[in-house]
Design a protein that fits this description.
By secondary structure, the protein is an alpha/beta fold. It is about 50% helix and about 10% strand.
């Protein structure tokens, strides 16, 4: 399996479904460059697609299958949970954001693409948060 240096947060993937073509294009570029996701990302995608975007389950399943075909998916584990709690406490992140960060750290990623966290923040001397909509991609 190839080594991935990037992890992609749910909010970036949701822009693949957006009518904002600039953000959709940037999200597509990130996905095509290769990156990991976690099961949590799939869960959050399904939730937002169903509750906020009113997509049918057939449409949601198609989108999730496409994302899974392009982005290797890391499982949620007790190790992810324990690391996430430490990240939440140390960096003041929400539990859900901290679990994304923990999954990225445990996967050995160097970049986490996210619109929701502090752009440029370095976590654990390893993982840099990158908001791709601020004008730069790492």
């Amino acid at each position: 399996m190839p080594e991935f240096k990037a992890f992609i947060d749910t909010n970036i993937l949701l822009y693949l479904l957006s009518s904002d073509t600039d953000k959709a294009d940037k999200a597509e570029k990130i996905v095509l460059a290769g990156g990991l996701i976690s099961v949590q990302v799939l869960n959050e995608m399904a939730n937002v697609a169903h509750r906020k975007l009113a997509m049918s389950w057939i449409e949601i399943n198609e989108v999730l299958a496409l994302i899974q075909s392009m982005c290797p998916t890391k499982p949620l584990t007790v190790e992810t949970h324990d690391r996430g709690k430490l990240v939440a406490e140390r960096y003041g992140l929400s539990v859900y954001d901290a679990m994304i960060v923990a999954a990225a750290l445990l996967a050995g990623c160097e970049t986490l693409y996210s619109e929701d966290m502090q752009d440029g923040q370095l976590i654990g001397h390893q993982l840099r948060i990158c908001n791709p909509f601020t004008g730069h991609l790492s």
